[in-house]
Amino acid sequence: MFKRIVIYFICLICLSVGIMSLYRSSLTLKDMDVIKGLLLEKEMVLIHTGATSSNYTLVLAIQDLDYKLGISYSSYDDAHGDSTMRLLDTMKTYTFYVDPTIPVSRTVRCGIYKIEDSSGKQLYLESQKYNFWLGIGAILASIFFYTLYKIGLKKEEKLSSNNNI
Question: Domain limits of the chain?
Fold first, then answer.
């Protein structure tokens, strides 16, 4: 019984992640929260370190904003290979397009989709392919786990009917 509940719970989580990721991949610029402000500070921060990987965030402090904005990177190479940190200058005004589905966490709101300078030149654009493929993968995983769940139910029914004979 416990295994069925766990598999059912995993199915629901995978399905939820899949739907949210597909929704995020469908967002356009007009759906984003637009924040225009003076960049006061920029800093690359190690957010989490695991046994095999580290996550970094480019944290940006914007004037008159209660929280900081961030761009997440999954590895040291991604974080330090991206040119965004070098393209942004402090004490200049930028327009940030931020994913509205990502909340503030620990005073940082990650989810910057696009950054433009004051002349409208694009300095950063996040690819939506990642969210799309994550969504597809999570939904396929949900289907896989649901199939396992159903196969387990059939085997249990078959065993219980054989024990009743």
Answer: 2-22+131-159, 29-127
Domain 29-127: CATH class, spelled out: mainly beta
**With 0-12 CB in 10 A as exposed, 13-18 as middle and 19+ as buried, what is 109?**
buried
The DSSP bridge partners found for residue 117 are 94
What pTM was computed for the model?
A: 0.78
- Amino acid found at 27: L
Alpha-carbon distance 1 to 156, whole Å?
A: 10
What single string gives the DSSP state of each residue in 31-85? GSEEEEEEEEEEEEEEEEE-SS-EEEEEEEEETT-SSEEEEEESSHHHHHH-SHH
Please list, in sequence order, all residues whose beta carbon lies within 8 angstroms of the beta carbon of residue 51, skipping any fewer than 6 positions away: none
Q: What is the pLDDT of residue 151?
A: 82
- The 8-class DSSP code of residue 112 comes to E
Cα–Cα distance list, 92 to 28, 58, 107, 122 (Å): 25, 17, 22, 14
| pLDDT of 161 strictly over 90 | no
Please list the residues that pair with 116 across neighbouring strands.
95, 122
Kindly report the CA angle at 67 between 26 and 56, in degrees rounded to 5?
70
